[in-house]
Q: What sequence folds into this?
């Protein structure tokens, strides 16, 4: 049985792969919470994402806000796939994609 997406934590780097959708949102939420609890900058690599739904967008947006509240950085590293940039844009949250590790509150 395969997973819709996999996430590997390399200290403060979370790599998202495949479909980031409601069916696997609990795993994404747990990974983001663990990264935030470390109170280190959180870097997201979305290069391997093939699909992103509103649940994934909401979790990433909430993590960006939580990081700011904790005083840690949050940002996206590497290339952003079209499906990710389109999903954030259609949700009116494309500002989250422009975040680097030192991003201001979004």
A:
């Amino acid at each position: 049985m395969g997973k819709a997406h996999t996430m590997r934590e390399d200290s403060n780097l979370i790599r998202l792969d495949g479909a980031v959708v409601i069916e696997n949102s609990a795993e994404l939420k747990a990974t983001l919470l663990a990264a935030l609890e470390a109170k280190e900058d959180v870097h997201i690599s979305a290069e391997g994402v093939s699909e992103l739904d509103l649940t994934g967008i909401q979790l990433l947006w909430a993590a960006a806000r939580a990081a700011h509240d904790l005083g840690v950085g949050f940002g996206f590293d590497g290339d952003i796939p079209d499906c990710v940039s389109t999903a954030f844009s259609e949700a009116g949250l494309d500002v989250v994609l422009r975040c680097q590790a030192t991003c201001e509150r979004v």
About this structure: The domain at 7-98 is CATH 3.30.750.24 (Transcription Regulator spoIIAA). The radius of gyration is 12 Å. The chain has one domain: 7-98. Confidence is low (pLDDT under 50) at residues 1-10.
